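USER: Fancy drafting a protein?

ASSISTANT:
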Amino acid sequence: MSYYRTLAMAATEENMMSVKLQPNMTQSTYDLKICEDYWAYDNKSGFVEHVKELCKKYEVSPQVLFETVAQCYAYLDDVVCEYCGYACPIEVPADIPYMRAKDNWLCTICEHALWRIDKENK
């Protein structure tokens, strides 16, 4: 396991239950810290304020912040596709409670496969 992945997993497990981060190979530890802080958002305070605080803390523009975060793959390991077991990817912190509130979840591939099977059976 890579150093960055180990770092991300340790930080995420401690602070955010089961949000996991898979940083891009080109990301630095500084970039990883930005991602960790972004995903530490608690969904209770204002998201816009959270972003403003991060931009101020790291002295970056919102565009740079979101570009950095977009390079780091985030997923929930406690929400998995009911057919293949693929972990649920997330794009924004608001996805976390939304995805966990679902009774079940299908990844795009399984959802498409089931749609095709259903369509063929009609």
Summary: Residues 3-16 have pLDDT under 50 and may be disordered.
